[in-house]
Design brief:
The complex is a heterodimer.
Chain A: H1 6-13, E1 20-24, H2 30-39, E2 42-47, H3 50-58, E3 62-65, H4 68-71, E4 80-86, H5 95-105, E5 106-114, H6 119-128, H7 152-161, E6 164-173, E7 176-178, H8 183-186, E8 189-196
Parallel strand pairs in A: 1-2, 1-4, 2-3, 4-5
Antiparallel strand pairs in A: 5-8, 6-7, 6-8
Chain B: E1 11-15, E2 19-20, E3 26-27, E4 30-37, E5 47-51, E6 89-93, E7 108-109, E8 114-115, H1 125-139, E9 146-150, H2 152-163, E10 170-174, H3 182-196, H4 214-228, H5 231-237, H6 262-275, H7 280-292, H8 303-306, E11 313-319, H9 327-339, E12 344-349, H10 363-375
Parallel strand pairs in B: 5-6, 5-9, 9-10, 10-11, 11-12
Antiparallel strand pairs in B: 1-4, 2-3, 4-6, 7-8
The chains are: A alpha/beta, B alpha/beta.
């Protein structure tokens, strides 16, 4: 699983072989293909971009074109062992409702997102007084698909409010995993494994 | 299979049936006109059924005997194409009710020694599928690796899965729907009324008569043809351009009712060439079958129930400018498949050509169909 994006590779390593997975915002299906080929996972995907869906279906994956904000309601309760939302949370109109749907559909949910409280981003704000444009968040304020920025601390407090349980947490700086200590300041990305409390 | 007369181009057979019709009637014997391409492998695991659209036929990848034109889906079916006779055993059957050799209103009724005409029973999409299953039995094909159809063909494919879930491993449904909408029915009714208002229709008893309901059928085709295109496509192709006159005058108005506009001339040509190859009564019967079609109806109104416990893999494709069976209709099916826990793929492709896009050059569609079939080991 070396070719996967680091957050996807963490998710892939922690998914039970042979399980049923729904990848919400699956892109071109890179994670789904890896899960299918290496862990015999029955993977389904939801993706908004037509070109990505075409690419995923052409590689033999079961991917449906749709919008996480509106189309998750179609899926039955506990239809999957895992629901995955990687790098997509911050692009949804209602991240809170999307997360609720994930934990309705999946027994557990993997969620990964860029941490908006990472020091480089804080620095851009503090020193330049500008919306940050970084390697992880390369868009400008007007063309960014990331409409709901979130920090690790925000996310954890949301999870607590909703009474969801954190079953796993991983933090990344660049390609490397880093420790939980100071994560909100130092980590570029976070990956959480959630469960209904 | 080389010397097996059941397989090959332009096959005809008459089977005892009967087809148990949704109307309660029974239809027998049943004539079938069909083509097969490629060879059924030893474990009979490579059979692909292609279902044609309203005015389509079995000549999916071979020359049409009346028009002399190439098969209607040579972009999808053929050597090196996603559906490939080198690898697949491809079957395409003229649907019950049609006029290219399978039983329909123009066929000979053994009970009356004359063509059926309006004595042909009113049939449904499910009846067409039941008939196809009888022919597949005859061919010794118990399981289909895939059933593929666009437009009405997609309705047949969906219906095939719901009637015979254990006989279909995968289904590809393109530019189609799970039910005919009020608008769909309305357009069909215009076509039927055009045919029936033609005095030459003679209550369907025009066979053997010099006068044929060609004018009515041509108008029906013209109205329907508009629904197969998009405003964008029509504008691109014709805009408001005027025809050149036969005397060589360049595009001027005649201040009369000739086909001044190029789009008029085009539609008239579509209507006229259609009557050369299609039977007016078949047009009535098949459009009626499509109007009756509502897959959820037999399942208490729940489309998801039509696919309950299905093991079939599905691939649905829609086109963004198709207003006959728009994307929202494919999404309804996808929603039901998701609710049923089925393995479904769906994508909306972009094309300026409206409903007809599935018959035209669409490399993205081919890539998707190819990938989907190969993922099923085909």
């Amino acid at each position: 699983m070396t070719t996967l994006r680091p957050d996807l590779s963490i998710i892939a390593e922690n998914i039970r072989a042979g399980s049923r997975v729904l990848d919400v915002g699956c892109g071109d299906g890179a994670l789904m293909a890896a899960l299918r080929d290496q862990k015999q996972v029955d993977a389904r995907g939801l993706e908004i971009e037509s070109a990505n869906v075409s690419a995923a279906v052409a590689r033999g994956l079961a991917v449906v074109q749709g919008d996480a904000d509106t189309d998750l309601a179609d899926y039955p309760d506990k239809g999957f062992d895992y629901a995955i939302l990687s790098q997509t949370l911050q692009t949804t109109r209602r991240p809170d409702l999307v997360l609720d749907q994930l934990l309705r559909i999946g027994g557990q949910a993997f969620v990964s997102f860029p941490n908006f409280a990472q020091w480089k981003i804080r620095f851009a704000h503090l020193i330049n007084g500008r919306m940050p444009v970084t390697k992880q968040l390369p868009h400008r304020w007007y063309d960014t698909p990331n409409i709901h920025h979130v920090t690790i601390r925000d996310f954890k407090s949301f999870v607590a409010e909703r009474d969801y349980a954190i079953k796993g947490e991983w933090y990344l700086s660049g390609e490397k995993e880093r420790s939980v200590r100071g994560a909100n300041l130092l980590a570029e990305h976070a990956v959480f494994l959630l469960e209904r409390g | 299979m080389n010397d097996d007369g059941r397989f090959g181009l332009d096959r005809r057979t008459k089977l005892l049936g009967p087809v148990k019709l949704d109307s309660g009637a029974s239809f027998a014997p049943v004539e079938f006109a069909y083509e097969t391409y490629g060879t059924l492998n030893a474990d009979k695991s490579n059979a692909i059924l292609i279902c044609h659209a309203l005015t389509g036929d079995q000549y999916v990848a071979s020359t049409h005997p009346v028009t002399g034109k190439p098969g209607w889906w040579t972009r999808m079916v053929g050597e090196g194409k996603p559906v490939d006779p080198d690898r697949h055993c491809i079957i395409c059957i003229n649907v019950l009710g049609s006029c290219m050799g399978s039983s329909g209103p123009a066929s000979f009724d053994p009970a009356s020694d004359a063509p059926y005409g309006m004595d042909f029973p009113v049939i449904t999409i499910a009846d067409m599928v039941r008939a196809q299953a009888i022919l597949l039995d005859h061919l010794g094909i118990e399981k289909l690796a895939c059933v593929i159809g666009g437009s009405m063909g997609g309705m047949l494919a969906l219906t095939f899965v719901s009637l015979f879930p254990d006989r279909v491993q995968s289904a590809i449904v393109i530019a189609s729907t799970a039910r005919h909408s009020a608008q769909n029915i309305a357009f069909h009714e215009v076509g039927r009324q055009a045919i029936m208002a033609d005095p030459h229709w003679q209550n369907g008893g025009y066979y053997g008569s010099v006068d044929q309901p060609d004018a009515g059928l041509a108008v029906a085709r013209m109205a329907a043809h508009i629904t197969y295109l998009s405003e964008e496509g029509l504008t691109q192709k014709f805009g408001r351009q005027l025809q050149d006159r036969p005397d060589g005058t360049k595009g001027t108005k005649t201040f009369g009712f000739d086909a001044d506009f190029q789009v008029e001339s085009y539609l008239r040509h579509q209507g006229l060439s259609f009557v050369e190859r299609f039977d007016a009564n078949s047009y009535l019967y098949i459009t009626r079958a499509m109007d009756y079609y509502d897959l959820a109806e037999a399942h208490g109104g729940s489309l998801a129930a039509a696919f309950k416990n299905t093991k079939t893999r599905f691939c649905l494709i829609s086109f963004d400018t198709d207003w006959l069976y728009p994307t929202i209709e494919s999404k309804r099916v996808v929603r039901a498949l998701n609710a049923a826990g089925a393995a479904a793929s769906f994508v909306e492709l972009s094309s300026p050509f409206g409903h007809d896009a599935f018959l035209l050059d669409a490399p993205e569609m081919n890539r998707i169909v190819d990938g989907f079939l190969k993922a099923g080991g085909l």
